[in-house]
Design brief:
Radius of gyration: 21 Å
Shape: flat
Number of helices: 3
Strand order of the largest sheet: 1-2
GO molecular function: DNA binding
Pfam family, one: NUMOD3
Domain Nuclease associated modular: 19-55
InterPro entries: NUMOD3
Protein name: Nuclease associated modular domain-containing protein
Number of strands: 2
């Protein structure tokens, strides 16, 4: 694809967004596009029932370390030990990554 249509391919490697950066102008346009009324979630209201259901499922997850099967997610917990030998448990690799602020 790099060879046949190079003018349509803005990525360094076709099919990979690795290393791609939006220009300043594009970032400004995207920010303007999704501002206030233009945002896809603008005006939606989450019911109290839904908020309570989400809160309850989060509590159950942290108690049981298992996602509800209705979501189709079989998340794997991550167990780490700090220098003091204390066990740290995270709901996922991303949870551990966010805690330690690494990429």
């Amino acid at each position: 694809m790099d060879y046949y249509k190079p003018k349509y391919n803005v990525l360094k490697i076709a099919g990979s967004s690795s290393g791609f950066r939006h220009s300043i102008e594009t970032i400004k346009k995207l920010k303007e596009l999704f501002k206030k009324e233009s945002h896809p979630k603008y005006g939606t209201v989450t019911s109290l029932e839904t908020k309570n259901a989400i809160a309850q499922s989060i509590k159950e997850f942290y108690l049981n370390r298992k996602f509800s099967s209705q979501y189709g997610i079989g998340g794997k917990s991550v167990f780490c030990y700090n220098k003091l030998g204390e066990e740290l448990i995270f709901p996922s690799i991303n949870g551990a990554r966010q805690q330690f602020k690494v990429r």
